[in-house]
Amino acid sequence: MRVLGVDPGLTRCGVGVVEGVAGRPLKMLGVGVVRTPSDAELGERLVAIERGIEEWLDTYRPEYVAVERVFSQHNVRTVMGTAQASAVAMLCAARRGLPVALHTPSEVKAAVTGSGRAEKAQVGAMVTRLLRLDAPPRPADAADALALAICHIWRAPALNRLQQAHAAARTPRIPVRKVTR
Amino acid sequence: MRVLGVDPGLTRCGVGVVEGVAGRPLKMLGVGVVRTPSDAELGERLVAIERGIEEWLDTYRPEYVAVERVFSQHNVRTVMGTAQASAVAMLCAARRGLPVALHTPSEVKAAVTGSGRAEKAQVGAMVTRLLRLDAPPRPADAADALALAICHIWRAPALNRLQQAHAAARTPRIPVRKVTR
């Protein structure tokens, strides 16, 4: 599976594409950052992010998009911008019919380092090792986007089983009799 | 001036179009709500909001879009959804080159009722009176969208003077000598 990870942000939106399946070596296809000038109008910045994400989707044609789930516990101003940038990323993906998965920062950290409370540097080090890179991708937002994509590849089998269980639970217990003509 | 007001929300996104200038009777051109099902995927809901806003922009061709400025002081879950819906509205407007203005809930209330702490019902009553409607628009999100548009029409002259003052303050004090050929 090919996954585009997006670490949303208005000033720096990390993007990274990883290909692979759980239990096999993973391959990085691309990594980068979509930047927007902090003195631009908010609407303009969102348009720039949309254009950037569209370019990544066009270039790498991922089958899944994994976006960091935004929480409101941090700085209010930053969180609003992060929520808005993540909305644009999800919109771009859903418009193409791509499944969008949200993972929390601690799910991502736990997936790549084994600890949900790992430091930034530890995440960067593990991303570097898992993707067999020469050095940790910079800035941290780029490394985080790759970590998101890796997290999605590794969590996907479990998430699929969960979705199937939910779907099974929703189907009616009494079988509906089929009308045969 | 013709303004589309947007009261952002994932489940109900209020939209209202008002035409007029400060100091003259205002005219409502349209009012409604863009709805998305709460059990749909977040990405799908954002796509539905985008489609809805685009329809309103196509139908009414506003010159300005006024969106409620989102704060994080309320319920965390709701605020994230509101921020994401507002991002889609701003994106749609900015993509067409339309100026986007943000007004806080208290600025809107103060503009239409005289008090920044007015109740919902009071805002509805004033919107009904100012636009000479037979009854307050329902749901409240629709009335709030019209109040946003009215607020923008009335605040626009003051905001323009403010922007001009800022622009003037940014220009260099020492005049740059023009080179004449």
TrEMBL record, chains A, B:
Origin species: Streptomyces enissocaesilis
Gene designation per UniProt: ruvC
Functional description taken from the UniProt entry: The RuvA-RuvB-RuvC complex processes Holliday junction (HJ) DNA during genetic recombination and DNA repair. Endonuclease that resolves HJ intermediates. Cleaves cruciform DNA by making single-stranded nicks across the HJ at symmetrical positions within the homologous arms, yielding a 5'-phosphate and a 3'-hydroxyl group; requires a central core of homology in the junction. The consensus cleavage sequence is 5'-(A/T)TT(C/G)-3'. Cleavage occurs on the 3'-side of the TT dinucleotide at the point of strand exchange.
Cofactor: Mg(2+)
Subunit structure of this chain's protein: Homodimer which binds Holliday junction (HJ) DNA. The HJ becomes 2-fold symmetrical on binding to RuvC with unstacked arms; it has a different conformation from HJ DNA in complex with RuvA. In the full resolvosome a probable DNA-RuvA(4)-RuvB(12)-RuvC(2) complex forms which resolves the HJ.
Active site: 7, 68, 141
Residues the record lists as binding Mg(2+) 2: 68
Lineage of producing organism: Bacteria, Bacillati, Actinomycetota, Actinomycetes, Kitasatosporales
CDD domains documented for this protein: RuvC
EC number: 3.1.21.10
Protein name, UniProt field: Crossover junction endodeoxyribonuclease RuvC
Endpoints of the signal sequence: none
Co-factor binding details: Binds 2 Mg(2+) ion per subunit.
